[in-house]
Amino acid sequence: MENKQKILDLLLPALQETRNLHDLVELEYRSDRGLVYAKFASGNYKIANVALDSGTAMITDVIKQIV
Fold this sequence. Notes:
3 strands; 67 residues
């Protein structure tokens, strides 16, 4: 079974190096809801629906839904 939070923890530094997501401070996976909460330095957040995703599909969905 994939550890989706670990995948997000590894993805976070790469996204922080981009122009669009430099202010991203946290990616939190909620398995009970199938959601990823993307928190930004400004205090804002975006939510990505990743229900039933594999690890690689989750990466794609998170990027598409928070940019």
